Amino acid sequence: MTSLKRAAASLFLATLCMVGAQARAQDSFYKGKTVELNIGYPPGGSNDVYARLLSAHLGKHLPGNPNVVARNMPGAGSFLAANHMASTAPKDGTSIAICAPTIALDEMLATPGVRFKTAQLNWIGRISPLINVIMISKRSPVKTVADAQKAEVTLSGTGVGSTVSIYPTVMNNMFGTKYKIIMGYKGSNEAMLALDRGEVEGHSTAWEALKTAHPSWKPDGEVTLPVQFALTRNPELPDVPTALEFARTPEEKSVLEAILNATEVGTAFFTAPGVPPERVTMLRRAFDATMQDPEFKADVEKLRVSLEPMSGEELQKLVGRVSDLPAGVIEQVRKVYQQ
What we know:
The protein is α/β, with parallel strands linked by helices. The protein has 13 helices and eleven strands.
């Protein structure tokens, strides 16, 4: 073997050793560590259910099998958790979160309290789209959107920045409905309890939250659903019109599509900005593997929630589309979006 060939062989072997060492370092990074899953909502709602479901299974698909511990960090419509992730959370892949699917739009609208850049967050994956509904008690004379345009109906609310208040507000500002949101309830479970007690006539929340907490309410006629917030009718709600169906002009349709993009973002998880790319990839592939895990799927069935996953790469693009909205559309959204 010539000296040139020996040098090339030595360089090749050294490169292999270096790559192997890097791979081993990545594989061992999570060993013995704890991954914190921050939930931007109180306990009991659909986001809390999905986050705890993920936390029970994600660790076994990460190299080193770290513990994944879920903790609730409610506040300011989930902005508290989003701001934490953008600023003080570790930038090493040991902190992930779920927040309102509307945070990209909130950033574009410069909503007070926003101190994050959604495009800089590293999106890991989505478990399911998140369809919201307005539910009205059978005790109320208001049954339809047309009824709500004529008579005031009280809805229990949680945070101003959450979809619980955003979607009814959009209906009020665009279509003249008279949904009056009574704020101050700590999560959708408490808000639905207020409906059950007769303190309010209705509530707006995720369809998943309703069917998980009170699966009999719709089938038994305890509540009516005048509208669902989605780009298309959910197969489970074929008789409930979408907000998009009330659009009277192409301009109104464009505004609603921009707002309802959040339903496709859905129950989406992300890690902090600045996390090394290789670790973001590890988190994404672990998320993908979790979505295919038979034990995870069995828990999905047991909890009666939906499973329609999206990869982190696709999710990153979906969130990024909000940044490309025309300025005119953003201005129209601003007029109807905020109370």
